[in-house]
Every structure is written in C-alpha cells, then in structure tokens.
Amino acid sequence: MAKKCMEYRELRRKYPTQVRNRCKRCGRPRGYLRRFGLCRICFRELALEGEIPGVTKSSW
To answer: What are 8-54's pLDDT values in tens digits?
Structure first.
C-alpha cells in the first residue's frame, strides 16, 4: 500500500495532468497498466494466481 503522504500529495496537485497513476494494490507509480489499474509486478502475481479473469500466460 502506498504511504498516506503519497496519496495525499497526488490529491493536492495543482493541475490534473500532474497526477501520477498508481497501482491500486501497492501504490507503485511506475509500470502502471491502465486497463487493470495495477503495476506490472502486481499484475503478474494476480495473473499467475488466476485472480484476473480472461488473462492467461501465453506460449507459442
């Protein structure tokens, strides 16, 4: 989970374009996937556990 101060800082931004997207699970600002609202690390963990419907590991 992100620190409370980081969440508060994002809400106080002067312009909406300055707001960083953050992972809903851990608060990481980098490697964010908009479609799922998660960072790449949390996305991979949940996908491998089968928690995200419709996502499977590809192989060819």
So the answer is: 777 777 777 777 888 989 889 899 999 999 999 999 999 999 999 99
C-alpha distances in Å from residue 44, one per residue of 7, 55, 59: 23, 10, 15
Output the pTM of the full model: 0.74
Decide: 37 and 28 in contact? Cβ < 8 Å: no
Domain map of the chain by residue range? Answer: 4-49
Residue type, 37: G
Domain 4-49 CATH (choose: 3.90.1150.10, 1.10.3720.10, 4.10.830.10, 2.40.128.590): 4.10.830.10
SS3 13: coil
Both tokens of 35, joined, read 């479609």
